[in-house]
Amino acid sequence: MLADADRILSTPRLRLRGFAVRDATPLNALMERPGVPEWLKIARADPPWDAWWRALRGGGARARRYTVTQAGDDRLIGLVGLSREGRLHYLIDPDLWGHGLATEAVRAVLPDALADPRTGDIVAEVFDANPASARVLQKLGFVVRRRTRAQRIGHLYDEPATVYGLARTQGHAQ
Ligand SMILES: CC(C)(COP(=O)(O)OP(=O)(O)OC[C@H]1O[C@@H](n2cnc3c(N)ncnc32)[C@H](O)[C@@H]1OP(=O)(O)O)[C@@H](O)C(=O)NCCC(=O)NCCS
Fold this sequence. Notes:
Blueprint: E1 9-10, E2 14-18, H1 24-31, H2 49-57, E3 64-70, E4 73-82, E5 88-92, H3 101-114, E6 122-127, H4 131-139, E7 143-151, E8 158-166, H5 168-171
Bound molecules: coenzyme A.
Coenzyme A binds next to strand 5, helix 3, strand 6 and helix 4.
């Protein structure tokens, strides 16, 4: 199994590659944009960047974390991550929302993840107040597994959320 940094996935508009220390600054800038951090449970990057990068790359071969870039431009415009438990997360630069890029990026990751026989079902928890994220999953064939409640970063109370799942067998057909 290749390390994250060695995995490169190409789509018509995107190039997904492993995280690099140079991604920390643009990632932090993205995490400060309104509409981005409140939906996520990933940490801001902090110096020393090397320690942060190693932590982000932790989890072994089954954890996949991709930097999303546009074809021909190596700057980070988003992330797609899949934990070793099969939990999916993703984000895209708000300037680029609504053009199908999140869907294209996650679609690229699914076959790569499912090619690993140790990968089980893939799940994503989405706040019900975040319909764009739910739509990405629906377009990729994820189905509702269960309703739940979860706490958004910086909020005091749990809010309604939905766990979406993609069964291994379904994922191969996407
Ligand atoms: C969720 C996110 C990744 C979507 O990125 P994107 O590149 O705009 O996604 P896509 O263009 O592939 O798909 C978005 C879909 O949601 C739809 N959508 C957008 N806003 C919507 C809204 N308020 N209500 C319903 N649908 C909405 C779009 O129309 C599109 O669907 P369509 O292709 O059927 O028209 C982006 O909004 C983001 O980074 N949000 C912050 C981080 C986040 O929420 N991550 C997910 C955590 S689970």
